[in-house]
Amino acid sequence: MRIPHKRQGGQVLIMVALSAVVLIASVGLAVDSALGYFVKAKLNAAVDSASLAAARGVTAGSSEEEQRTNARQSAKEFFDINYPDQFLLSTPTLNPVGVTFDKGIVTIDVSATASLPVSLMGVLGFKTLNVAATAQTIRKDLDMVLVMDTSGSLANNADAVRAAGKSFLNKFNSTVDRVGLLHFASGAQLDLPIKTSDRGFDRTQAGNAINGYKFGGGTNYSEGMWNAQDQLNSISQNNRSSLRVIVFFSDGSPSAFSSYFFPATTGNCTKAGALAVYDDLPSSGFATDGLYRINASSAKLTPETYCTRNLISELPTWYNAHNLPAQADDPTAREFPIVTTTPRAVSKDMSTRKLQWTNMHRASRNLAEAMASKARLENTYIFTLGMGAALKAKAGPDNEIGEDLLRCMANTADAPNRCRKPAEPVGLYCYAATESELSPCFTRLASAILRISK
């Protein structure tokens, strides 16, 4: 029997040709799929970065229309940076960016597509491969108080402190974010009350207030913290933003606190005042200065109400600076202990300058930590910023490092174990060794706040 070789050869050629087409298509599918995967990943990253950039850009502008324009421009700039044209021969298209305002919440919607020519899949009739990516960023409403240290030790850094404070506030939305501003030294002074019903803040008023800062006096952390949380709590429960923040800046450890100092209703001690203690134990005389006004950064009480330091015989048991004199030791006002055994032992005895120096330093630190803890229990994030070598040095009666206190207040992951509370809001501490690092530190805090507001 004869075998039809020619017919059999023709069938093999057909089978080889068909197999080649399938093989080429399979290889093309693999190659083009891999290229599509890389394009998709690149496009996702570009869209995500554009969405975040738009959320930051929406803070600029004095009207919603200006803020939309700035958000869209920021989105385009970051998209173009993160997805260059002709990446793997693809052509990207950024769709119109959606910016929606709803009371204190801003929703950013970003989407984009990219088309790339196929390689071997062209044998199956395909011309291009299209991929798409979307991202949405919801910028929550924000209630924030900025607390600025204006004590005398910052006098040589005044210009840098003013510039950094204004730059920080410029990173927030003046029509959406509620912002309050105050500064402290021996006492605390409110510069910009936070709005309790409407949203936004007066950026010009805040900037003018910062421009007018004078630097002098002691360091009264607790008065700054008390006023900051009081501002946040002035907003009714049903009108509070979903994110509450205190940003606290200082260059040194606290050495003052405010109260009615006993005897509070005799002699000249008739008003609450801030009592400061020297940073170093003096060789003679008193370790404490006289009373300062609690509602001014550095101004002593008038002679009619001034309580001279030698009339202060003991410390009050509880912090009472914002209670009436008759309520100064009322049990209902017992929120923050002064005389205590923890975390630092404080007695009421002020009979010697060493006791004055020791008890005042410890009480100043205890109050700052206690007030920060209370704020966190009320769902407030605390972000702290410290500047200068003094915060790295051991100081006070217990040789403490100043920045450890700022870490405790912020409840950072690297805070000392005694004050670390993982169940409470975790903030951020940033250290600026010099004034040149101050603005970058403020920028880092602003970025962290904006990140958790999304």
From TrEMBL:
PROSITE patterns: VWFA. The chain crosses the membrane at residues 12-39. Residues 143-255 form the VWFA domain. Keywords: Membrane, Transmembrane, Transmembrane helix. SMART domains: VWA. It comes from the Bacteria. The keyword rRNA-binding does not apply. This is VWA domain-containing protein.
